[in-house]
Amino acid sequence: MTDTRTPGRRSLVKGALAGAAALTLASATTPVASASGPAGQVLRLPAPTGPYAVGATVRRLTDPTRNDPWAPEIGVREVMITVLRPAASGRGFPRVPQLTPGAAAAFTVLAPLVRPPLPGAGVDWAATLTHARAGAPALPGRRPVLLYSPGGGDSRCMGSSLAVDLASHGWTVVTVDHPGDASEVEFPDERPGRDRIRTTVLRPDMDAAAFRTMIDTRVADLRFVLDALGLDRAGLYGHSAGGAAVAQALHEDRRVVAAVNLEGYLDRVDGELLPVARHGTDRPLLLAGTDGFRDERLDRSWAALLGHGGPVTRWQLAGGDHWVFTDHASLVPQLQAAGLMTAAERAELVGTVAPRESVPAVRTLLRSFFSRHLPVRAGG
């Protein structure tokens, strides 16, 4: 999300979008591939805590009724999703990498641009494995579905740990990419108007109109995924821009029965409140934040929603900062331990809280919330 607190504070606009010249690699696959360099530090994601193994399937969904707002030459709107389902066993099935080799090559270049102060070298981003298993057959039966929308400038892959943990406890979890503002998205193939790997088009001078396009497009993407998967009820959770989008989708679509906004502003760059904050909601909405990211703008937009009453609650993690709700909660401390990041840089991204505290706290928070409002039934 755009951060308007102080000029010295890195934000989506200053940090996630800095280095606009480097982002011209959006259509240049050779520089991206060559930038991956030799193997570096291998990072690990924490294991899920639920009783089930998790199977993963990657899908492309195409909406012919919409054009892509960031690249109209494509002619349609495409999204990539990963479907994570509880499985009887993962034995014999390979673990899914957090980033495919092509996406990892792009992220090696983009990491210090979209998410300062991530290092520009010394990390083998292709080597991190999730705890989901490719091809592991899903358990029989219908299960409640959760959709995840990542933060602005992030791909769905940076929310893997939380998504896999939720799936290990019985939910079907669908992580959604929003091409055009996501750092990088890899498609199964090329098509007219885009390459196989599509990188972000966002720039440091993103104005109010571009911000509106980002949020409105994300809401439309989420509603389209509900349509494409034939869902008549689902829970949503999202981080930063994704948090704003899921809150607004809750307001617009009655199929969304509950949502969790992980530290997303509920207004636009110009201060206009999103409709969900102006009018309130009659369905459960959790606003989860950190003390490190809390500011007047967040308080104002969240207070507007809370002022309407209804089933809206606020929760705060002590010692955390904005990216603690993503895989960075566990990855960034490993980068610090490897000498690739300072303590101050770590604190800027995820705060000072240890992952042994932050990761279980966030996982437990979401499991508890969705267990109340979209529970997993015994036997599926």
UniProtKB/TrEMBL annotation:
For this protein, the record's InterPro entries field holds: AB_hydrolase_1, AB_hydrolase_fold, TAT_signal
Q: In terms of domain of life, where is this protein from?
A: Bacteria
Q: Which SUPFAM superfamilies match?
A: alpha/beta-Hydrolases
Q: Which UniProt keywords apply?
A: Hydrolase, Lipid degradation, Lipid metabolism, Signal
Keyword Signal: yes or no? Answer: yes
Region forming the signal peptide: 1-35
**Pfam family for this entry, one:** Abhydrolase_1
Identify the residues that the record assigns to the AB hydrolase-1 domain, covering every copy. Answer: 144-275
One annotated GO molecular function: hydrolase activity
Q: What is this protein called?
A: Alpha/beta hydrolase
* Organism annotation: Streptomyces gulbargensis
